[in-house]
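During the no-cost extension, the postdoctoral fellow (Dr. R.K.) reprocessed legacy sequence entries with the updated structure-token encoder. One reprocessed record is reproduced below for audit purposes.
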Amino acid sequence: MGMVIGIDVGISTTKIVGICNGRVVSPMRIKATDPVSSLYGAFGKYLYDNKIQMSDVDHVMLTGVGAAYISKPVYGLPTAKAGEFVADGLGACHESGKDRIIVVSMGTGTSLVRCDGDKIEHIGGIGIGGGTLQGLSRLLLKTDDIRTVSEMAVRGNISSINLRIGDISARPLPGLPMSAVASLFGNARSDASREDIAIGLIWTVLQSVGQSAVLASIGSNIREYVMIGNLTLLPQCRVVFPPIEKLYGVKFIIPEYSEFCTAIGAALCHFDQRFHVEKL
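Re-encoded structure tokens follow.
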């Protein structure tokens, strides 16, 4: 059996993986000025870097917002499009080894997909994500480079930005420890340092995403959330999510290939007859 290539086509960034005998092969990301260039650049580089011949590829599976710009088979190979939310679910289940989860896809915004056994469904989302972090950083820090913001944030002091329960109450409130966040940016001063602003912005995005995941699971008895997408690479995830886990008795899971789960899920759609794909 040959390789199935899964490609998550963004507007300027494309993620590509191969699936061979159920194994993920060499995930890769490529940036370009438009989705078509990004797709073909990623595909060519992926084959070249991994010494894969065109004849070794059985099928190409596309997903993502940029896939809408692709209307013909990639290099004449059998090509199909998979739904992005289904790809999110399949990829997250595959990488986490779990089938009863809420998938939290942290991209430009954040989408929420519930996986419950054989059922995968999009249940909503929020307009807060990497785009929010970039936009606010552009306004307040004069940069939209997420890596730069993250490095600045390491030197920041979150207590100089967020207001905690302990800042406004002499004793814990029912179900809320003194360390719980009462207000994001509620303690910010006009002369806050750039480092403090940076950590405040990251907390604002990650805290909002984490809380939305918890709220989305009410009534489902699902208490495990698989986090995927670019924001999972932020080291601050290891600081922001644990207090939410402790507060609500839930678990946030960031799998090894969290950044590439949607591309992985697109490839897996080729093998799963439950879900419709659009052949090109």
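Residues 3-83+261-279 form a domain with the Nucleotidyltransferase; domain 5 fold (CATH 3.30.420.40). Helices lie at 35-49, 84-96, 130-141, 146-153, 165-168, 194-216, 237-248, 261-269. The remaining legacy entries will be reprocessed before the final report is submitted.
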